[in-house]
Amino acid sequence: MCTAQNAMTAARAMVGSTASDDAPVVDDRELVDRVKQGDATAYDVLVRRHLARATMVARRLLGNVEDAEDLVQEAFIRALNRISTFDESRAFAPWFFRLLINTGINARKARSLRAAEPERGDFPSRAANPLELAERQELRDRFIAALSALPPRQRLVVSMFEVDGLSTAEIAEALGISRETVRWHHHQARQALRHALAAFR
Amino acid sequence: MNDERGVMSLSEPERDAHLARAIRAAEGPPPSVARLELLRARIAAAAAALLEARRERAWWEWMTRWARTEVALAVAATVLAAVIGGATTGGRGEISADTVVTMSNAGRQTTAGARLDSVVTRAFAVGASSEQVMNALVGPASGEWLLSAAVAR
Predict the structure, then answer these.
(1) B141 Cβ under 8 Å from any chain A Cβ
(2) Which end of chain A is more exposed for a tag (fewer CB within 10 A), N or C?
(3) What's this model's pTM, rounded to 2 decimal places?
(4) What percentage of chain B reaches a pLDDT higher than 70?
């Protein structure tokens, strides 16, 4: 079923794009309908569309890149296996991310994960001299420790809200919890992280 | 949601750009396009057999949906061919008139299946070859018989 339209769609579905940051050429629901018939091109477009965000969410859950990639693969395959049960009147992304997060939380409990060694970027600071560099390192370590100490859901909630820019309603749907619970998790996480940053503000 | 004193509110919380930068830095850079492409290929390979199974299932479901219609059409076509064959073989003389049921005799039969059965049984009873029977039922391969029959009428 590799039609010209499908090929064009695949080409235009940027790696890492999400439903929120570009206007999809083909709606997720239409893609899901085609995946139900076994259309490999439609499945590929769905994977491309949600892959980058899924990888980031998985990394937050599991703490390292390799486990995160295994989780993302497992989640996409599970989604394919369960695609017949997907209610097409609802959006695909929250359904898929809920599957991913639940699988990830179970994986955390079930298997021993590789040691978490997050790749570290530049920490926000205007440090230049040795003293400031040392402070910057201390800040980074302190913040990473605080972030790692958060329960998985709190860490996800604060990252999805602050970094990914999702609303509390979207996060609630993805995690399968109420908006109030999302706000509570966000509040707790933000307090802990702000506390870690407070001395350096 | 809440302010610095921890008072919860029902409105959407304000976003904290400084906190966002700190989290982003702690999480490290997003995965590279090359790495994502490798992962995408892995997923596609793992999904190939499942998608193939879905395609086969979809085909069989389609076949099942249309099977009843196809069988009904096939039966109707066979009966129609038998009726036309019965009406035209008399004129062509390949099978004598008393070996097949004519249109008027066929009209007395209650079902098309019974007519078809009668044509075949009686044709074989008088020693007609299987080719003659087939010619009587669906017409010879040339197709000229149809024109001849039409002119004879």
Answers:
(1) no
(2) C
(3) 0.60
(4) 54
